[in-house]
Fold:
Amino acid sequence: MNTSTSQASSRRSRRTRAAAIGITVCLGATLAACGSSNGSASSSASGGSGKVGVSLILKTLSNPYFVSMEKDAKTQAGKDNVSLTVAAGNSDGDTQTQITAIDNAISRGDKGILITTNGDAVNAALNRAKQAGLFVIALDTAPNPPSTADITYATDNEQAGKLIGQYAAAALNGKPAVIAMLDLFNNQVVSVDINRDHGFLEGMGIDPGSKTENGKEAKSGKYTGGKGGTYTIACHQPTQGAIDGGRTAMENCLSANPNINVVYAINEPAGEGAYNALKAAGKEKNVAVYAIDGSCSGLKNVTSGEFAADAVQYPGKMAALGVSSIAKLARGGSKPSVTNGKSFYDTGTALVAAKSLDGLTVQSPSQAASACWGS
Amino acid sequence: MTTHVDSEATPAPLEEFLNRPATLTQRIHSVLHRQPALSPAIVLVLAAVVFSLVNERFYALQNLSLIAQQVAVIGSLAVGQTVIILTAGIDLSIGAVMVLASLLMSKLVADNHLPGAVALLAGAAVAIAAQAVNGLLVTKIKLPPFIVTLGTLSVFTAITLIYAKGQTVALQPGNILMWTANTVSVGQLNLTNGVLLMIALYAVVGYALRYTAWGRHLYAVGDDIEAARLAGISVNRVLLSAYMVGGFAIAVGAWILVGRVGGGDPNSGLNANLQSITAVVIGGTSLFGGRGVVVGSLIGALIVQVFVNGLALAGIDPNYQVLAVGILVIAAVSVDQWIRKVKS
Structure:
């Protein structure tokens, strides 16, 4: 943690640059006010003295998962007297827009940053922010290395994958598994992609074969989850996490192997696209689709039987906790700490299914609905 | 459809120069020059034969049906993209407009409880209006199409996100917006209404380009805008019409996308801009304008999907699909350049 003097001095140098770049940004406020060391929300427009400035930087705003973060963060900001600035990349993987948003947070004198990082390219900017005395909280996914952020508030993606994997294995009841793996990308390594994929395989009782790459497990063999049995991996296809991508991927998988009976989907949209493809092929009754996310519409899909099970996560909770942590810290409170035994603060995950199975803790869709997000 | 393969992209007098070519290379060049869709057609057939030999499932009619369904959205957009590229323009916003239109259609039904037909017309109107904005910026303010559509790409994407708030919209089967997803069986081939709709779009626009004065003017403007102006063609009107025909094609694509997605999804169709350009380029239409046929773009889109599907069936890492598509694009542009070079 930086001392307040080093904070002030580093902030001053940053301020000089910011001032040089654009006095106009200050819109008539004096330079001193713009660079005031209490770091309260910047621009003259929001200038309440007790307000704490926080930047929420999301991956994109085209995904209800991140929109839910924005919504809950705004609600929390209202309660905690926080001046919240929201920024987002234009697409998944858009690091440049995020870097700009980080730099803006530093020049604005925000007390902290909440970020769902789009990739390693934002790390240098986050380090600049930490040096300038901002408290950096990663949401949803830890940066690489995790120390780039002061702390991460996330779901255990691997655990979420594991839950649906265990359910899939138990539901098979010893039958052979023919598995379609519908991943996120093939052209970028994203930890959520790897963690969920590997978690699912581990839950099924299949060795992922690699710590860092998808698709390295043995293509066939025995799974040890549930009653155990034989398995075949029919395909690994990228979906971009979207419905149309999920559909095309599933269609190609089905062409390659019409006997698929288990589908792992990286998220709910990919799972929905997969279900559309199965339905068009008249196979939706015999294939179980497993997804991760926990949106309100996803839970409805569990109720209707479109998804056999869904692992729910709580993006809004991550963002709201993040906002209040920074508010407390800025007002002299203590730093948040990680969950016991983990490298991050775990906001939890739960398994949701319409049918409960022996030996597994399962929430019903209606139980889970109280904490769901999106529409 | 096959009649359009035979259509000529260049005015007849040019053939006199190419009469009775002596060497084999010249003869091949002459044929390729007269029929821009021929080289991609050869690639498509070769690819299909190779993949059929590698995996017996590839040739299954069920699989070919899927490829047709998968190509319907990009295939429709590629019609619009072809018409615009024929004028020596380009449309980087085409996918963004489609996503906007598909979300609007879905939301009007799901949230505003309007009849499907009204929502469909509203979606089409918005797509055509959005393209008219592109066209007016190109013709009235004289901005390069690349810059205009780069800008409107962001504008239309932002409008979509503001409007959709990131949410997907699900539709009930039976709504007219879902009509494109209904299956039509032709023998063992299970096509969808969306595929037939796309084919109809190719027939209409292909006919208009080949047999109407509008089509001839479009080629003339794309080939040499000054010469076209001197010949008395109303250049701006032709350019504007190209973008609006693009808007119509986008509306068809949006309708088919709604059927495939089962509603509206702001994340679906994100790669459609570049995929449509890829299909057009592989399909033998020149990025420099004035040369190409729409059916080439359908073949181009099919080639991409055949590679993606064929490599997936063979169990090959998806990265190689991307690699194959990249090589195809470069090969297609090289062929185009070769054809032009030998000509001059």
Notes: Residues 1-8 of chain B have pLDDT under 50 and may be disordered. Residues 29 and 339 of chain B are 6 Å apart (CA to CA).
